[in-house]
Predict the structure.
Amino acid sequence: MANVVVNAIGEQCPIPVVKATKALKEIRESGTLEVHVDNEIAVQNVLRLASGKNLPAKSEKLGENHFVITMAVDSPLAQETEAAEEPVCCIPDQRGNTVVAVSSATMGHGNDELGKALMKGFIYALSQLEELPRTILFYNGGAHLTVEGSASLEDLKTMEAQGVEIMTCGTCLDFYGLKDKLAVGTVTNMYSIVETLSKASKVIKP
């Protein structure tokens, strides 16, 4: 099984996509392709490449300016003809100026188990939007969604790797004894929450 790594850190579009495309052509057996980049736009473009070739892919943020996109390659793509290839096209930043404010680990009122399932589905649906939110704020009970053991961590990390800002209220984490368990995003304060909400073109509260 092949495990090919492409280092495109420091490269701007279309270079990461070009390098990834070349690496895909050279893979002769099933395996994975890892593409390392240092900006969110490159992440979006490489994910778009994977989608266009029907390859399962995920993105992960490894550091402040370090992202990795992993594609699963089930069979060699070297036999694709040049005519079938689409020209490399850099897409713009697909994050809008929408802020999502999550104040609870459940969605709606009634049964808590149903509410948890609805919230999990809501966050997954967010991650699948063509235009991602700029920021997702978590406060009060919503702080439980960004810590270890949360069922939504994978979806939140996927969005973070594409440039979505994930921020959780520090006072809330302290109140629930969760500050040491934060697993995605950064800790914020009420001033920053108010400032972020005031600058948003649209605010969604599930």
User: Anything to note?
Assistant: Confidence is low (pLDDT under 50) at residues 78-84. The chain has two domains: 2-84, 98-204.
